[in-house]
Design goal:
The protein is α+β, with helices and mostly antiparallel strands. It has a domain of 128 residues: Peptide Deformylase (Alpha-Beta Complex). It contains 4 helices and 9 strands. A 7-stranded antiparallel β-sheet has the order 1-2-5-8-9-3-4. Strands 6-7 form a two-stranded antiparallel ribbon. The structure holds nickel (II) ion (NI).
Length: 195
């Protein structure tokens, strides 16, 4: 089921999500609908508050990086990331790497807006899967960035919060235009990928 994507201005995006206590069928259903919604919107990630649900559930589906194999070490073993996408993360907790990188980001909840965000290049994510199993994933590059972006959502943080003051100034008009739109807006797929 394709869900409505909540856009900037709705307070649900600013709330810190409580953890999932019991992973039951309703959580699996939510994750399945989030994956469908993310794919329909051409996104590479989606967090539960973006579909109006304040719970620590995030999904990511990051295509393999061209020409270079990114780090994808699951529970201590190097794996092919393609075999694990889309990835559902319940109650994720991140440990950030020290090396940082600035890259352009977008967000399905902030249509038409993109900007550079400085983030750690690599992360270690601890999360629970839908079957209740606990995992530790070490990854880098775009996947690490997407995971950080989605975990930020679970904490009520948006990528625009992490942009430099100068970069924020450049998107001021776009944000103002967006604020005039209805709070709920159907995302139009475009070349810009977000999460
Ligand atoms: Ni986002």
């Amino acid at each position: 089921m394709i869900l409505e994507i909540i856009t900037l201005g709705d307070p649900v995006l600013r709330r810190k999500c409580p953890p999932v206590e019991i992973i039951d069928g309703s959580v699996a259903q939510l994750a399945a609908a989030m994956i469908e919604t993310m794919h329909a919107a051409d996104g590479i990630g989606l967090a539960a508050p973006q579909v109006g649900v304040s719970l620590q559930v995030a999904v990511v589906d990051v295509p393999p990086m061209e020409g270079e194999a990114g780090l994808f070490c699951l529970d201590g073993v190097d794996k092919d990331p393609a075999a694990f996408m889309p990835l559902v993360m319940v109650n994720p907790i991140l440990e950030m790497g020290t090396e940082k990188e600035s890259q352009s980001e977008g967000c399905l909840s902030i249509p038409e807006v993109r900007g550079n965000v400085l983030r750690p290049f690599a992360v270690i994510a601890r999360y629970t899967a839908l079957d209740g199993s606990r995992h530790l994933l070490e990854c880098d590059g775009l996947l690490a960035r997407a995971i950080q972006h989605e975990v930020d959502h679970l904490n009520g943080i948006l990528f625009i919060d992490r942009m430099s003051a100068a970069a924020k100034l450049r998107i001021r008009r776009a944000l103002r235009d967006l604020a005039r739109e209805p709070a709920r807006y159907r995302y139009t797929p475009g070349p810009a990928q977000g999460g």
